[in-house]
Structure formats: structure tokens, C-alpha cells
Write a structure and sequence with these properties.
Oxidized Rhodanese, domain 1; 30% helix; alpha/beta; five-stranded parallel beta sheet; 2 domains
Amino acid sequence: MMDWTTLVSAEDLAAQLGRDGLVVIDARAGLADPDAGAAAYAQSHIPGARYAHLDHDLSDHRKRNAGRHPWPEAADFTAALERWGVSPEDQVVAYDHGDGALAAARLWALLRLLGHRRVAVLDGGWQRWSELGLPTDDALPTPQPTRYPGSFDQNRLLDADAVRAHLDAGGLLIDARAAERFRGEVEPLDRVAGHVPGARNRPYAQNLQQGRFKPAAELAEGFAAVMGDYLPQQTVMMCGSGVTACHHLLAMEHAGLRGAGLFTGSWSGWVDDPSRPVATGEA
């Protein structure tokens, strides 16, 4: 029986393609061209895969002052799951171009925080699937619509005010952006460079080796180095817009570190209000 809850290898997924209860979702995305992932999906994808658009399905751009990729409402996300034919009992596998950051881990986090247990990210993504010469096609599936009731675990979803209160109470905030962005040396996407005062930096790329996730023990050791004595439940993840921060949530759960929160607006949401303080340099 399929019971993948964090990561699944290309070989294991290929062996189960076509099985009842398995739903594969293509979440390829591009920040420079928001429709690049959809175009790639239309050209070729894992057989039977549905497509999840980062901006249309995994974000809610009706929200203001909530960052570049606002977390969607549960009713909208569950409506998308119903269109894709996902039931609460299904085994879901998400993939993107490669390392999971855009935007397979985001889809994983959305489902996990909805309470869906059997959801995993394809380790190595489309790149490794293609390198292995595994099956692809360009047919568009027509899934049978389902019913998917549910709501997000709001205790693990924090806005900017909640993050400020979390830090004031002595909680830990970890920023998944590259070190040079955290230090404020460069800022390619948002209007202000720097980081939230009090945050610590662990770039999401440190979860990876050769495009795949490190073993669970190595991930646990890496997070322990930045977390110190903090428990996962005392820890909140952020990035530029709340997308790559989900990579940390996935890596932590794979390492057995469950329960961390997410700053949904992340840096772009923090700097939406120019009165909020900004730090530069090392943590």
C-alpha cells in the first residue's frame, strides 16, 4: 500500500502509476514567468498528472498586504482539490521542475496543514524523472470531481502581527532565503532588502544535495545547528513570499521535526508596512 508522507523516489512512483487512489499533481512554476509551469505541463508531464498553478491555485491574490503569494482560503483550495479529483484518503504526489521549492513543497504544505496525511513530494522532481527516462505524455486528464471538506490548522499559519508577537514571546523565526538576501546585500524581488529583526538564516538549499533532499539524519543535524534548544512547535519558517519556506517544513517533517509554523506573507508581507523594522547583516 502506498503510504508516502514526505518524499517519494521517482522509481517508487513509477511503479505505482495508474493505481487507484493515487493522484499526481504537477506544480511546476516560475517567478519570472508565472505561466512557464503551465506551458511546460501542456508540453509534457507525468501520465495522469493534474496541474496546480502557483498564482491561481496555491495563492490568493485578492488579499492585500499579505505578500507576493498570499495563502489561499481553505474553501478555494478544497475546491481546487475537488476539481483535481482528490479525496481525503488519496495518496497525493506533487512535483515541480526539480528541488521542490517551486512549488511542490507549497502544495505539500497546503495539504498537510489541511490535515491530509498521505501527501509527498517527488524527490528530484521532473528533472530526475526525465533523466531516468520514465513515462511522460501530453494528454490532459479529466478527473472525476470529488468532495473535500476541510480547514487549515490556523495555529501554524502566522501573519506579520502574529510573527512579531511570536518573537516578542521568545519564539524562533528561520528565514529560508539565500544568505545574501537575508543580509540585505541584494534584493531581486521585494522593495526593501534585509530581514526581520531577530530572525535566523538557513537557506533552503542546505536541505539538498545534487538536487535531492539530504537523508533525514543529516537534515535533523542541520536544523539542530540553527534551532539550538528550540522545539519545532516554537519555530516559524519564512522566506520571500511563503513558498520556499514550505521546503523547510517538508525537510523538517522528513527529519522527524513536526509542528513548525509558517509566516504566510514572509518578507514581502513584512515590508508591505513601511513602519515595520528591518535588519541587515548577519543574524
